[in-house]
Design brief:
single chain; 253 residues; Rossmann fold; globular
């Protein structure tokens, strides 16, 4: 027993030594302000000071896109931008406004190889669902917005799928990864003007398993909703395949 105990002590000391050297050579820093983080803070990528700076979406919400409504539009419950659109999803929700810290974090999540950041960010989505009592009991399944196979190879992961997995686990919902396919490779929406985005993604998605979505209430998940064009196209494909209600949840809008 004494020998085993001695080995355990040596291993523990060696582990702390490696951790200390790692912290010196490769210090863990906040992805936003670059402030040094404690190496013991596993799976933490943002310091508390930056985390509280994330701009939250606050009610009243537009009944279409989910953005905060200005006072002059309260009587209509819908923002002026959505009044001009024919969106195929029934309603969208987002916990954050796409600005400042969250915008920077999402960019690093998607393009900076920080896929592990997704589970950290998904907390904002699950907390929002609970805070505003979104109707998760009404939802039958969760579908992440799919990437085209070319872009998936480039990025090596689908950010929407990572966010979806956390929400599905939290609320014990089925996640259908292959029910919808993005079969047409399109330009990145961020490279286009707002008026070009709907045409860019038009007819880009198809349902591969109509039996899995027919008669179902679906929650689509993505990282950002800007014009709603991408989510609307997926919702259109789902409804043509027989889906019932289609809600959208994004990290920010």
């Amino acid at each position: 027993m004494t020998k085993v105990y001695f080995i355990v002590i040596i291993v523990s000391m060696f582990r702390r030594l490696i951790q200390g050297l790692t912290e010196i050579v490769y210090p863990k820093t906040c992805l936003s302000c670059k402030k040094k983080l404690s190496i013991e803070a596993k799976d933490i990528f943002v310091c508390p000071q930056c985390w509280v700076k994330i701009k939250k979406n606050l009610p009243p919400f537009c009944i279409s896109c989910g953005r905060q409504l200005q006072k002059r539009w309260l009587s209509k419950n819908i923002c002026p931008a959505c009044q001009k659109k024919n969106l195929h999803f029934d309603r969208a929700f987002s916990p954050c406004a796409y600005d400042g810290v969250i915008k920077e974090l999402i960019h690093k999540f998607k393009y900076g190889g920080k896929d592990r950041l997704g589970r950290h960010l998904s907390r904002l989505m699950t907390e929002f669902i609970k805070e505003y009592d979104l109707p998760m009991d009404f939802i039958d399944c969760i579908i992440p917005i799919p990437l085209h196979k070319t872009r998936l190879r480039e990025r090596e992961f689908n950010q929407a799928q990572i966010l979806s997995r956390s929400v599905a686990e939290e609320f014990k919902k089925d996640m259908l990864v292959d029910a919808v396919e993005r079969y047409r490779h399109t330009k990145t929406q961020t490279d286009l003007e707002i008026h070009e985005r709907a045409d860019n993604v038009k007819d880009s998605f198809r349902v591969t398993d109509s039996g899995a979505v027919k008669g179902k209430n679906v929650l689509l998940i993505d990282d950002v909703l800007t014009t709603g064009a991408t989510s609307s196209e997926v919702a259109s494909a789902l409804k043509k395949a027989g889906a019932n209600i289609v809600f959208v949840l994004t990290l920010a809008n």
